[in-house]
Design goal:
Elements lengths: L4 E9 L7 H20 L6 E5 L1 H10 L2 H11 L3 E3 L14 H19 L5 E2 L10 H7 L4 E5 H6 L11 E5 L2 E8 L1 H6 L5 H14 L4 E8 L9 H7 L2 H11 L4 E3 L2 H7 L4 E2 L8 H6 L3 H16 L3 H4 L11 H4 L1 H21 L11 H8 L17 H19 L9 E5 L8 E5 L3 E6 L5 E7 L4 E2 L12 H6 L36 E7 L6 H5 L15 E8 L2 E12 L7 E12 L4 E10 L5 E11 L9 E4 L5 E2 L5 E4 L3 E6 L4 E8 L4 E13 L2 E19 L4 E11 L1
Parallel strand pairs: 1-2, 1-8, 1-9, 2-3, 4-5, 5-7, 6-10
Antiparallel strand pairs: 6-7, 11-12, 12-13, 13-14, 14-15, 16-21, 17-18, 18-19, 19-20, 20-29, 21-28, 22-23, 22-25, 24-27, 25-26, 26-29, 27-28
Helix pairs in contact: 1-3, 16-18, 17-18
Length: 716
């Protein structure tokens, strides 16, 4: 060919904080190692690598010999390393001081371990916000990569994109390389000749020597479903590297640094807030995401998708914090912990030397994967959320060491989640309780500091846009001679519509319910039936802090609401609950007082729901012990006769929670809360919590009152 084109192949390899050790090991064995071993057989080829901090640290501990392979390929000129936030945070949504620290720390880590000078960064999930140039430049970076979709959203023609573009903010400049979406979908899923045809077409259209970029997940080369056999056993990567080697006269592999040093920018650009196209759809509420998908299908059928695609956009990443309240809460908890850590440590330059342990734990809790959900499990994976909370609790526990008030309980009001309504924190050296008066006065977080475990790390069942596809059961496959990517795969198993159960609000602890009758079985209860006839569970409650009494601290919550029994006038009810934490004991009480302010007696069943999480509900070391000493697992449902006490035991995490009731309930309802979500392997049913709800028969005469008392004690 008369014209040449340069090709930069970049791989982003990552495993999240808290992922299972066997997943790291599998990724190393079937993806990371064979890719570099294959590359080593083609000395004329070069690749740009980004390995996240969690993965590098795991490799350093478990397979230190892999660093020797890095060093050998670096010496041969076959590798270039990029940096970024060390623990793979989404840079714009964590505190700026942490973004700067993580970027600088990773650059230093790569310099010390591999002797490389980091010039650019992998931008986590390619999430771009216009203020990033200042942050990236201050951290010492010259370039990043984002999708060509970002450029389409700014009015650029994807067919004309090449090399890199300059952007700036507040006088700071950054260079941006556009990633080819078409290449992302071709490699490694389509035949090698089809990929070469794409390069030939680009070489004809673009200036001589123009550079094209493919930067994408390294796990595509072996770890995504079916790709190990396709890429290695069937020889796709060997054929691809052979083709690149044999076509070097017109298709030259290059690096980001080489293009920066040899070519001027292709132009200037100011990108809107964006990520790759799929992310925008995932971040939308389910109904809106369905409409976006329908529009895409319609435009494709009408032959107008190419024309209109640049103007099709969903939401942006921050909307996950609204779409999933559990994620929003966890994110604001992380920001709160960041403030505590930096107040304690001051403004020292922690990008050099050994990290203070509270700061390291904080940074680990900023790993992005557990905060959102798309094609992978993410937020739906309990072990990833657990890792985030464990790191946050550990960081705060380290800050508490040596505190003079360690044995005393504290009560404070603060707007933790920044929704304009205060939350209440009750805490001491053993326990942290966070109470949300605006959401039924529910306890949204219960931290046992000894075991570093949040017992209310739950996730509600909610509608997802892909549930509609699951009811259709349409199987997906790649084109003939190709392998389907996870974006092309669909659901081979058809699920009936009744499989999907949706919760009306997050599954937290200490919500109050009123029923006309008992549930007939646990399956009915798991479908949120019978209907709650009160308006207390998710409504606003008035609140006040209780003046500390010795080592105790607490809050008083009240709501004047109503109970709407069938065939009767609504009954006005004043409900009060007082929550008191006993400092240093691991125990707290919930003291209820209800007053019937109506003209008719109130006859109903009163229930208090407790949603608790355990990791591995089928593990015999985890379960429920009833008042008679009998034990049962938490992965099954049942209706048990009421008892004055029961205990959720968790020998795996070394924490038990005992419940004591006055008076004794008539019935205890137990059922597992399981979500249905998508992942790279298809349909996942995932245990998220166990709902435990004691029920009392209730009869309160007009203008009369009745009381209940619950005592919860943590043992760890």
């Amino acid at each position: 060919m008369s014209k040449k084109i340069r090709f930069i192949l970049g791989l982003h390899c990552h495993q999240p904080v808290g992922n299972f050790d066997h997943v790291f090991e599998e990724g190393y064995r079937i993806s990371y190692l064979p890719f570099l071993e294959t590359l080593a057989r083609f000395p004329a080829l070069r690749v740009s690598l980004h390995y996240s901090g969690p993965l590098l640290e795991w490799i350093s501990e478990r397979h230190p010999e892999f660093f020797s392979l890095f060093a050998r390929l670096l010496e041969a000129g076959q590798l270039e390393f990029t940096g970024g936030g060390h623990y793979e945070p989404i840079l714009p949504v964590i505190p700026r001081r942490d973004s700067l620290g993580q970027i600088r720390y990773m650059s230093r880590y790569l310099k010390q371990r591999l002797g490389v000078r980091v010039r650019g960064a992998w931008l986590t999930e390619r999430i771009w916000e216009p203020s990033l140039p200042g942050l990236l430049a201050e951290a010492g970076l010259e370039f990043i990569t984002v999708d060509d979709f970002h450029f389409l959203a700014a009015g650029f023609d994807a067919d004309r994109l090449h090399d890199y573009y300059l952007s700036d903010d507040q006088g700071a400049v950054i260079r941006i390389f556009p990633i080819s979406q078409r290449l992302r979908y071709l490699v490694p899923f389509h035949p090698v000749e089809e990929v070469l045809d794409f390069f030939r077409q680009k070489a004809e259209r673009l200036p001589d020597g123009a550079a094209l970029v493919l930067a994408d997940d390294g796990e595509k080369f072996g770890m995504w479903p079916g790709t190990h056999d396709w890429v290695y056993s069937q020889g796709w990567l060997e054929r691809f590297f052979t083709a690149l080697s044999e076509n070097r006269d017109w298709l030259e592999m290059s690096s980001f640094g080489e293009v920066l040093d040899s070519s001027p920018p292709a132009g200037k650009v100011y990108l809107p807030t964006s990520s790759y196209f799929e992310m925008g759809g995932w971040a939308l509420p389910a109904e809106a995401s369905e409409r976006l998908a329908d529009l895409q299908v319609r435009f494709e059928q009408e032959g107008r998708l190419t024309e209109l695609f640049p103007f099709l956009r969903g939401s942006f990443w921050r909307n996950f914090l609204v779409k999933y309240p559990e994620s929003g809460w966890m994110h604001k908890r992380m920001c709160h912990t960041s403030r505590l850590v930096h107040q304690a440590l001051g403004d020292k330059p922690y990008d050099s030397g050994r990290l203070p342990e509270p700061l390291r734990q904080l940074w680990m809790a900023q790993c992005n994967c557990a905060y959102w959900h798309g094609i992978f499990g993410g937020l739906y994976l309990p072990h990833l959320r657990h890792a985030i909370y464990s790191c946050l609790i550990r960081a705060e526990k380290l800050l508490l060491q040596g505190s003079k008030s360690a044995g005393k309980a504290e009560a404070e009001a603060l707007d933790m989640d920044l929704d304009g309504r205060p939350e209440i924190r009750l805490g001491d050296s053993r326990v942290n309780l966070f109470i949300k008066p605006s959401q039924g006065g529910a306890i949204v977080e219960l931290d046992d500091l000894n075991s570093e475990f949040n017992l209310i790390d739950t996730l509600a069942r909610r509608r997802e846009a892909y549930h509609r596809k699951m009811t259709l059961g349409v199987g997906g496959a790649g084109a003939e001679g190709a392998h389907a990517s996870i974006h092309e795969r669909q659901f081979a198993d058809k699920l009936p519509a009744e499989s999907f159960i949706y919760d009306p609000y997050p599954r937290w602890m200490l919500r109050e319910h009123f029923f006309a009758e008992k549930p007939r079985d646990f399956e009915q209860a798991s479908r949120n039936l019978p209907a709650d006839l009160g308006d207390f569970a998710d409504r606003e409650w008035d609140w006040s802090l209780v003046r500390p009494k010795g080592a105790r601290a607490g809050c008083r919550l009240t709501r004047r609401g109503s109970v709407n029994l069938p065939g009767a006038e609504p009954i006005s009810l004043l409900l009060r609950k007082e929550i008191l934490l006993s400092g240093g004991s691991g125990s707290f009480t919930a003291d209820y007082r209800m007053t019937n302010q109506g003209a008719s007696p109130l006859k109903a069943y009163f229930g208090v729901s407790f949603n608790l999480t355990v990791l591995g509900p089928r593990d015999p070391a985890v379960g429920l012990e009833l008042a008679d000493g009998s034990r049962t697992g938490l992965a099954v449902g049942a209706l048990f006769p009421g008892g004055r006490t029961f205990t959720v035991y968790n020998q795996r995490e070394h924490v038990d929670l005992n419940f004591l009731f006055t008076p004794q309930p008539e019935l205890l309802v137990q059922y597992p809360v399981e979500t249905i979500s998508q992942s790279e392997s298809g349909i996942d049913r995932t245990y998220q919590a166990s709902c435990l709800m004691p029920l009392w028969p209730l009869e309160v005469k007009s203008l009369s009152s009745k009381g209940f008392k619950l005592t919860l004690s943590l043992y760890s």
